[in-house]
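go over whats below:
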Amino acid sequence: MIAGTDPENPEFWGNMEDLDQRMVESCPIGYTLAIANKDFWDPLTDKQKENVANWLGSMNDKEMPNTNW
């Protein structure tokens, strides 16, 4: 998650686009952060938290895929 959400990292997952599969895959990441924040969110640095939040938030102005999630 740290590498995948860091735009400076070669393993960056990339920015989300309309109808992007990454939107579907981001749901379990958000859920994990919500229910296990002591293990997955709290240990992150401020910059890492910013990267994760920016990556998750990048879907906000995009068209969402019609899925069963």
Observations:
- Residues 19 and 65 are 5 Å apart (CA to CA).
